[in-house]
UniProtKB/TrEMBL annotation:
Lineage of the organism: Bacteria, Pseudomonadati, Bacteroidota, Cytophagia, Cytophagales
Name used for this protein in its record: VOC family protein
UniProt-listed PANTHER family: PROTEIN YJDN (PTHR33990:SF1), PROTEIN YJDN-RELATED (PTHR33990)
Superkingdom assignment: Bacteria
Pfam families to which the protein is assigned, alphabetical: Glyoxalase
CDD domains, per database record: PhnB_like
Protein species of origin: Adhaeribacter radiodurans
Alphabetized InterPro entries for the sequence: Glyas_Bleomycin-R_OHBP_Dase, Glyas_Fos-R_dOase_dom, PhnB-like
Location of the Glyoxalase/fosfomycin resistance/dioxygenase domain: 11-127
């Protein structure tokens, strides 16, 4: 059994996945806009480029996503990145927090040399962790 993650975006799925591919070392393995589906005649013109289904592999994890009208930011779940170095944790914190919302700034805790909680500019919530 394998558990994967599926995230809905309000029209920014392609931009988010390309950002994660570039900055998190992921690999997009699928990106299908609504206009490519068989019955695309009924899709509103302004939604044809929106993503119907996308898939990216980040490390050993698969993240899937789609654009959904009126999708809201993640509220009660976080994608957790366990990082190998303090420098990597600090770099990704600086990158993912731009135009986002920081819930807990990057700092040392009793369980980690670096830990932060934030929501990026695409609405995805992240926990960044470099364990002691």
């Amino acid at each position: 059994m394998k558990l994967d993650i599926y995230v809905n975006y309000p029209g920014t799925c392609k931009e988010a996945f390309q950002f994660y591919e570039q900055h998190l070392g992921g690999k997009i393995t699928m990106m299908m806009p609504h206009q490519q589906q068989t019955n695309s005649a009924n899709i509103p013109e302004n939604w044809k480029e929106a993503i119907l289904h996308a898939r990216i592999e980040i490390g050993n994890t698969v993240l899937m996503g789609a654009d959904i009208p009126n999708a809201e930011p993640m509220r009660s779940a976080y994608l957790s990145l366990r990082l190998n170095t303090v420098e990597e944790a600090e770099k990704l914190y600086a990158l993912l927090s731009v135009d986002g919302q920081v819930f807990m700034k990057m700092e040392e805790t009793f369980f980690a040399t670096r830990f932060a909680m934030l929501r990026d500019k695409f609405g995805t919530s992240w926990m960044l962790l470099h364990e002691s």
